[in-house]
Design goal:
CATH superfamily of one domain in chain A: NADH-ubiquinone/plastoquinone oxidoreductase chain 6, subunit NuoJ
Number of helices of chain B: 13
Structural class of chain B: mainly alpha
Shape of chain A: extended
Distance between the termini of chain B: 43 Å
CATH class of one domain in chain A: Mainly Alpha
Number of domains of chain B: 1
Strand content of chain A: under 5%
Radius of gyration of chain B: 21 Å
Strand order of the largest sheet of chain B: 1-2
CATH topology of one domain in chain A: Four Helix Bundle (Hemerythrin (Met), subunit A)
Number of strands of chain A: 0
Distance between the termini of chain A: 58 Å
Number of helices of chain A: 6
Helix content of chain A: over 70%
Strand content of chain B: under 5%
Order of helices and strands of chain A: HHHHHH
Oligomer: heterodimer
Largest sheet of chain B: 2 strands, antiparallel
Largest sheet of chain A: none
Largest interface: A-B, 21 and 25 residues
Structural class of chain A: mainly alpha
Shape of chain B: globular
């Protein structure tokens, strides 16, 4: 049951992730990206990490993708999907070569990689629950956690600086 | 889980789904009746006794109208928009505890569809998805007014989600859990969260109005500026779905507010009632059923409040809306978090 669910979710994830790239219309791409986030949240639930699943949906599907969609709708890029930028043959060949090389590198890197199994006796299935996650974040990983919050503060200050109107300056 | 439990759960889920739809249907009727009362009119009174069959007549009309799709619209997304709105609206009542547990023939039935330990986050996530139905429909219509409505809806929802989340954090600090069931259990009797979180409740209420696109925050569909907003091009049952989803959202928002701040299924003198009945099973069931009635009474009062405000207050201007969200509600919510934290520390210090 769980295995079938995993394969179904995985194929759905890969399919919608591919559709993000293939779709000609940017709005369709964003909608497929949202589906991808949902299926990834499904994977988190299969891994018993409910908190991560919910936060993934709130942050990515609920906030960031709304802004993406918002900007794309504002720019109205869907209109010129048919007469999109024409790419020359050389750049197509270069793109194929670069992609193929990246693929070779990936295969070379993954060839010798082994999946690190888990020990069923010592494995704690409750590790993804919100209480455990909070404890780990505020004890073992306290410094990276606090540093990340400083990073957010810096980003916020940067956004405010960019959006701020200075005296004598006309933006619109 | 045994098959009997599974059966009870299935019945419960279907019942909640049916009740949600029924309440949403009759909200349209009561909205018109309350509007009529406030404006000193009669309201719908032709279909059935006191106009009680009016929602059915409306639904019949919407179903039999011509299903029209504009020529240049993005057809698939045009159909998908109302569907998403409806799907998301009906999803969130799954984690709301409508009552405590019933005991039937030795089986304990929890009156909550899925008891997850992240219930609050689930509701919050689903609420944040609600805007997609509006955005997809508004964009797919290929109409400037629809697009403007959709964009307004998106920016409004994102802005008010922040203040809503911050006001929620104060409740979570008090209760120490993310499960709506545990939050409800902690407010037994008359120990409701509203006594500790009056400011947080007001912020949450305002944000709930904005998230449901209700007056005074119904800018995405303000007819004076945008014809009909995101549903300008919609007709027949697709329009009906959008309107229906709005009423379901009101119901869910009322249920969540009742759970978080007004003690969910708890009512005063609950333990006295439990102690007054000698048979423990019967006592539990009586208390649960009275609690269920209490919960729905609270929900109906909130729905009435939503309607009362709609017919009392005029609409905000868009810049006022943004100013209220970003410059007033968010700082207030942060202040509320700090006050709550100080209060918790003070309580630990004193007692």
């Amino acid at each position: 049951m769980t295995e079938n669910l995993f394969y179904f979710l995985t194929s759905l994830t890969l399919l919608s992730a591919l559709m993000v790239v293939i779709s000609k219309n940017p709005v369709h791409s964003v909608l497929f990206l949202i589906i991808t986030f949902f299926t990834i949240s499904g994977h988190y639930i299969l891994l018993n990490a409910q908190f991560l699943a919910a936060v993934n949906i709130i942050v990515y599907a609920g906030a960031i993708m709304v802004l993406f969609l918002f900007v794309i709708m504002f720019l109205n890029m869907g209109k010129n999907a048919e007469n999109a930028v024409k790419t020359s043959v050389i750049s197509k060949i270069a793109g194929t070569l670069a992609g193929g090389l990246l693929f070779v590198v990936m295969i070379a890197a993954l060839k010798d990689a082994a999946i690190v199994g888990y020990n069923p006796e010592t494995y704690n299935s409750q590790v993804g629950m919100v209480e455990n996650l909070g404890k780990v974040l505020f004890t073992q990983y306290l410094l990276p956690f606090e540093l990340a919050s400083v990073l957010f503060l810096v980003a916020m200050v940067g956004a405010v600086m960019l959006g701020k109107k200075e005296t004598g300056e006309q933006h619109f | 889980m045994e098959s009997v439990d599974l059966l009870y759960k299935a019945i419960y889920i279907l019942a909640i789904f049916g009740i949600t739809l029924l309440i949403a249907t009759y909200s349209t009727y009561f909205e018109r009746k309350i509007a009529a009362f406030i404006q000193d009119r009669v309201g719908p009174n032709r279909a059935g006794p006191a106009g009680l069959l009016q929602p059915l007549a409306d639904a019949g009309k919407l179903f039999f109208k011509e299903d029209f799709i504009p020529n240049k619209a993005s057809k698939a997304l045009f159909i998908l928009g109302p569907g998403i709105a409806m799907l998301v609206a009906t999803m969130s009542s799954a984690v709301v505890p409508f009552g405590d547990k019933l005991i039937i023939g030795g089986h304990e039935i929890n009156l909550i569809a899925i008891d997850v330990n992240i219930g609050v986050l689930y509701v919050f996530g689903v609420v944040s998805l609600g805007v997609y139905g509006l955005m997809v429909g508004g964009w797919a219509s290929n109409n400037k007014f629809s697009l403007l409505g959709a964009i307004r809806a998106a920016s409004q929802n994102i802005s008010y989600e922040l203040a809503m989340g911050l006001s929620l954090i104060a409740v979570l600090m008090l209760s120490g859990t993310l499960s709506l069931r545990e939050i409800a259990e902690q407010q037994s009797g008359f120990n409701w969260n509203i006594w500790y979180q009056p400011l947080g409740f007001i912020i949450f209420l305002v944000c709930a109005f904005a998230e449901c696109n209700r007056t005074p925050f119904d800018l995405p569909e303000s007819e004076a500026e945008l014809i009909g907003g995101y549903h300008t091009e919609y007709g027949s049952m697709k329009l009906g779905m959008y309107l229906f989803a709005e009423y379901i959202n009101i119901f869910v928002a009322s249920a969540v507010m009742a759970t978080l701040y007004f003690g969910a299924y708890n009512f005063p003198f609950m333990e006295d009632l439990r102690a007054a009945i000698s048979d423990p099973v019967l006592a539990n069931n009586v208390v649960t059923i009275v609690g269920l009635v209490a919960m729905f009474t609270k929900i109906f009062l909130f729905i009435f409040f939503f309607m009362w405000v709609r017919w009392t207050l005029p609409r905000f201007r868009y810049d006022q809306l943004m100013k209220l969200g970003w410059q007033i509600l968010i700082p207030l919510a942060i202040l509320n978090i700090m006050l709550t934290g100080g209060g918790i520390l003070l309580k630990e210090y004193l007692f």
